[in-house]
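Worked example (supplementary).
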Amino acid sequence: GENVEQHPSTLSVQEGDSAVIKCTYSDSASNYFPWYKQELGKRPQLIIDIRSNVGEKKDQRIAVTLNKTAKHFSLHITETQPEDSAVYFCAASIEGGSQGNLIFGKGTKLSVKP
Amino acid sequence: EAGVTQSPTHLIKTRGQQVTLRCSPISGHTSVYWYQQALGLGLQFLLWYDEGEERNRGNFPPRFSGRQFPNYSSELNVNALELEDSALYLCASSLYYRAVNSPLHFGNGTRLTVT
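After joint prediction of all chains, the assembly is encoded as:
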């Protein structure tokens, strides 16, 4: 089955700096790669996703890149703010099929220092 | 639109007991997923139900089981509780399993403590 590795497990940056979180996946059939943000004591919430027919996607300060050949994808946050502090999870699945359940990485705890 | 709702919010049980957790999906969603979030272990996939059928199962022992009702709500049952079952149990829902562009929406979870 699918296995998702996520690095780093913790990341500390100064406000205004960029943050990058990287994930690799094992199943070449996976075609859907979302990122979830979980603030302390709250539910995980989708912040951005990308599908295998696209190499990059941006939404304001957040961007995700996908390298299908290398089977890795990354989350980039620019101009970080204290409210970006949270745990971020990457995930992978085969969308629209019997393997549609998301398999998550172990998470990255991002701390943005003012 | 009401989100995914889970009950109870907190639960304390003793080793060896059994527990039932409940989840109501977003209206119109037929797929329900269960995840275990233990400290430091991320989101571990438990079970996935759609249209009343179990679609997939994670690497958990058979004492973790569940079902989905005709109204698409779902129950997660855990028998013979062990200390390591202490975790936040998250339920999520999405549209019909063959749909694309239907992200998972999570509930607030049930915090289970086993003593």
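Two points are worth noting when inspecting this output. The mean pLDDT of chain A is 94. Chain A touches chain B at residues 6, 32, 34, 36, 42-46, 49, 89, 91, 95-107 (CB under 8 Å).
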